[in-house]
Design the sequence.
């Protein structure tokens, strides 16, 4: 059977296949702490990919969605002493709210303006968080997001243990994968791809372009907010740099590396990048050179990314 | 505002103009590059930072600020031209996102290379002796160096205007921005014009960085946050419009200095609030043409 036919046959099961991979992944991955980071960054890139890969909107403001989720989760836990699950729910919701606000302003512009406006608005949130020391801890970050005891249906989860922590985070990521797969398979998912491929024709078909873009931005915010909340719980701190625009750049870079508009590409991108970073930082502190090099190499030589190139094969 | 005297207000206006001058230079370079090459240069902040460091190098080598004032922008322009020739040129005609992503990556590389060469700590940049001190401008004493920044900006803008409007090469650039196809048919090497324009834009960014260095020192990150501010100026003024870059740059500078007077902690946020307001009222910016960016 040809590769394309295999891909077409497996596509309906993409969420299940991806989940299966994530479930066995830590078993042959020696560094469990990085494995958790890969899950979280992969989810962040997945949220970005929904907007850029499937709808074609290049945002450089996704740090605001991740950071908004992380701060919401952290503030709810640290300042209000709420349980962890309220933190995660608040983080997801905050990601969507921030996306709704930024999206409402940014979709008034199009094309490259969109990248500039989202970057600028996210920077605005960074400065607000920097100044609001009472809530966010300012420059020092929000410390003490400690979630010691997680019990679920009477079972106590000891998330200090790396593998338990991995599967705790993986549960949310897998849920997100199924939600994303459902969104992409829905009429709205088809509309997104139609808008990406030919905006004029999609408009002529009666789709409300602005509303679709805004909705996709909000959905993207939900995924990124969830990633932020998980990151806050995983790290135990929300550094203010989470909101800085270099964080947005990471989402763009990981998605580009893995493959834009591919279902599992963002996780491949996050995994490859974080492992490379780990290796490179063993012999130099200047690992940011790697970030730049990946950008340049992807744009110049393989714009489909690793996973995208693999899926496309030699047939193009 | 009752506690603020008119003189203090006037001084603050001048401070805003000096800050705005740096924004104007940055946004002018960005607009020039975009208008001609339809490339949004996300590495513009990195070239701004390079200008400051190249200035330090030139100052070390010659001991003369005026030599640095000439050499640093030339160096930034040369690096910009190398980047255009070797990297960005390959992406023309491949969609507007690709050069943007490439320059974003290029910024990472440039910043990290500067960190390797000069260290991660910022370096001091002394105000040249001839421009130190303050002068009486009628409403109070104002730092001479800031007046110098305003004067250099006016000179550069004037020269740029003359170059674009009154020279044959400027005519080619303006024609190329409108219709590169026709210009090529007329037998002009458009690729070379693009190279020159990219060098011009990054050179002006380098000049802005050098001018800003005595005010705030040189640091590898100095271009990072100013990139977002340059975007605000470009969005407010309208992309591709030089007049817009000047008007919006000065306006943003004034907004910052006025906010600093009333609520210093809101300084940064005010810039973005201004952009949000402009987006709500006039999404294409002051002088932008509607639909240009689609």
Sequence:
């Amino acid at each position: 059977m040809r590769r394309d036919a295999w891909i077409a046959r497996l596509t309906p099961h993409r969420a299940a296949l991806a989940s299966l991979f994530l479930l066995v992944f830590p078993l042959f991955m020696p560094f469990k702490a990085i494995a958790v980071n890969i899950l979280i960054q992969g989810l962040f890139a997945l949220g970005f990919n929904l907007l850029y890969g499937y709808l074609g909107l290049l945002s450089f403001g996704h740090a605001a969605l991740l950071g908004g989720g992380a701060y919401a989760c952290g503030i709810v836990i640290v300042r209000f002493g709420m349980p962890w699950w309220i933190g995660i729910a608040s983080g997801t919701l905050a990601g969507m709210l921030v996306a709704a606000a930024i999206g409402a302003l940014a979709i008034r512009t199009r094309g490259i303006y969109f990248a500039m406006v989202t970057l600028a608005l996210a920077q605005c949130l960074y400065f607000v968080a920097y100044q609001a020391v009472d809530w966010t801890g300012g420059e020092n970050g929000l410390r003490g997001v400690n979630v010691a005891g997680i019990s679920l249906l009477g079972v106590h989860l000891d998330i200090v243990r790396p593998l338990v922590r991995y599967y705790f985070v993986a549960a949310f990521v897998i849920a997100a994968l199924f939600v994303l797969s459902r969104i992409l398979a829905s009429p709205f998912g088809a509309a997104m791809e139609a808008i990406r491929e030919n905006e004029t024709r999609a408009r002529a078909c009666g789709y409300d372009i602005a509303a679709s873009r805004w909705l996709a931005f909000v959905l993207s915010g939900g995924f990124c907010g969830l990633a932020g909340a998980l990151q806050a719980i995983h790290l135990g701190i929300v550094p203010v740099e989470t909101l800085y625009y270099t964080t947005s750049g990471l989402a763009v870079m990981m998605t580009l590396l893995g493959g834009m508009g591919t279902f599992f590409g963002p996780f491949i991108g996050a995994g490859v990048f974080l492992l490379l970073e780990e290796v490179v930082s063993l012999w130099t502190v200047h690992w940011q050179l790697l970030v730049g090099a990946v950008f340049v190499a992807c744009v110049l030589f393989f714009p489909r990314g690793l996973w995208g190139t693999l899926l496309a094969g030699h047939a193009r | 505002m009752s506690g603020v005297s008119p003189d203090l207000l006037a001084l603050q206006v001048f401070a805003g103009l000096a800050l705005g001058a740096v924004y104007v230079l940055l946004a002018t370079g960005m607009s020039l590059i975009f208008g001609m090459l339809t490339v949004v240069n996300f590495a513009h902040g990195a070239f701004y930072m390079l200008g400051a460091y190249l200035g330090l190098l030139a100052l070390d080598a010659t001991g003369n600020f005026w030599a640095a004032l000439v050499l640093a922008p030339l160096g930034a322009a040369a690096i910009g031209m190398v980047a255009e020739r070797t990297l960005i040129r390959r992406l023309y005609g491949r969609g507007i996102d690709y050069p943007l992503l490439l320059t974003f990556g290029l910024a990472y590389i440039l910043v990290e290379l500067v960190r390797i060469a000069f260290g991660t700590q910022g370096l001091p940049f002394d105000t040249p002796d001839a421009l130190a001190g303050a002068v009486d401008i009628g409403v109070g004493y104002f730092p001479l160096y800031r007046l110098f920044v305003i004067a250099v900006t006016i000179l550069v803008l004037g020269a740029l205007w003359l170059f674009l409007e009154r020279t044959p090469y400027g005519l080619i650039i303006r024609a190329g921005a409108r219709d590169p196809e026709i210009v090529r048919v007329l037998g002009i090497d458009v690729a070379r014009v693009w190279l020159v324009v990219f060098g011009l834009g990054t050179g002006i960014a380098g000049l802005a960085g050098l001018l800003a260095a005595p005010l705030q020192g040189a640091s590898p990150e100095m271009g990072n946050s100013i990139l977002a501010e340059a975007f605000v100026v470009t969005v407010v003024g309208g992309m591709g419009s030089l007049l817009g870059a000047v008007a919006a740059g000065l306006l943003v500078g004034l907004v910052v200095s006025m906010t600093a007077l009333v609520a210093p902690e809101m300084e940064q946020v005010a810039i973005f609030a201004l952009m949000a307001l402009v987006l709500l009222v006039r999404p294409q910016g002051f002088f932008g043409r509607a639909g240009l960016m689609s």
Summary: The two ends of chain A are 17 Å apart (CA to CA).
